[in-house]
């Protein structure tokens, strides 16, 4: 005859077995909506860069396109153009 401990486990069981069950009350989160003022726009930055051929520093203008990605709920920013200022 097997004896049970105070919490109902067999005394010879050393590790309990955990079973995962899906949460019946889980709710899908809504997709984030674009914040106000999320039209595509451009940002310009002037940076000093090193020119290996001339062995000098030069000022370049970097133009980035910034837009909202609806599916991911994040902003994206990528280099559109780069030219010497």
- Assign the structural class, choosing from mainly alpha, mainly beta, alpha/beta, alpha+beta, or little secondary structure: mainly beta
How far apart are the first and last residues' alpha carbons, in Å?
A: 89 Å
| Helical coverage, percent range | under 10%
In terms of quaternary structure, the protein is single chain
Query: How many strands in all?
Result: 3
Rg over C-alpha atoms, rounded to the nearest angstrom: 30 Å
Strand content: 35-45%
Number of helices: 0
> How many strands, what sense, and barrel or not for the largest sheet?
3 strands, antiparallel
Q: Report strand order across the widest sheet.
A: 1-2-3
Principal-axes shape call: elongated
Regions with little confidence, pLDDT below 50 for 5+ residues? none
Query: Which whole number gives the mean pLDDT?
Result: 77
- Reading the helices and strands in chain order gives EEE
How would you describe this protein?
The protein is mainly beta and 85 residues long. It has a domain at 41-84. The protein has strands at residues 41-51, 56-69, 74-84. It has a three-stranded antiparallel sheet with strand order 1-2-3, with no helix packed on it. A hairpin with a 4-residue loop joins strand 2 (56-69) and strand 3 (74-84). The radius of gyration is 30 Å and the shape is elongated.
How are the elements arranged and paired?
Layout lengths: L40 E11 L4 E14 L4 E11 L1
Antiparallel strand pairs: 1-2, 2-3
Provide a compact summary of the structure.
With 85 residues, the chain is mainly beta. Helices cover 0% and strands 42% of the residues.
């Amino acid at each position: 005859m097997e004896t049970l401990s105070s919490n109902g486990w067999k005394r010879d069981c050393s590790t309990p077995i955990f079973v995962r069950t899906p949460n019946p009350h889980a709710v899908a989160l809504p997709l984030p909506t674009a914040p106000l003022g999320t039209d595509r726009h451009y940002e310009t930055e002037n940076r000093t860069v090193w020119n290996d051929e001339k062995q000098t520093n030069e000022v370049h203008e970097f133009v980035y396109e910034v837009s909202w990605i609806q599916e991911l709920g994040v902003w994206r920013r990528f280099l559109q153009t780069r030219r010497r200022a």
